[in-house]
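Structure request: Carbohydrate kinase PfkB domain-containing protein, Operophtera brumata.
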Amino acid sequence: MPDIIKGTNRSAEDDLKQSAAFFFEPTDRRKAAKPLKFKQNVCYSSPNLIELRAMADFLSPNVFIEKSNDLNEVLKLAKIVSNAVDFIIVTLGDKGVITINNSKRDGSVVARLYPVESIGNVENVSGAGDCFTSGFISGMLSYYKESNNVHIGFQSAKYALLCKNTVPFDLSTDTISINEAEYVTLKID
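Returned structure:
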């Protein structure tokens, strides 16, 4: 696993120029393609579908993919983006996440759909994606496998969805269990 840069006073552009690998959370479609301009070092990214579209459009502006909001669209976009990003986690809200792992060692691309359980009594959706990503990264830093990291991310997002605050105050490693999230392997054409 490559080193992941912690928050510093440096900008992402400075980190890219120094060839540091990092995890990129786009936060907005207008910023989604920014690190792709440097053509290196983006090891991990967690775009939503809108941000994934912006990334794919930047990398292949002449390729038209119909906006259908389904798995086929996500996989076609992810295939383009996986040429520039090693590991992509596409967040799909109440549909779960799709991970796309572009293993440079053997050239294979593996996609997995991790569906999420429905949650009642949602208090607030702000912060759920950030909590998912934080949980996933926490699992990575603990050297858990992908399905554990997704499970930790799902639990973290659930805490955020059930909380009136953007990020729950009581979210910690003590409140999260380490289990495996179930997934379905998808075929990428």
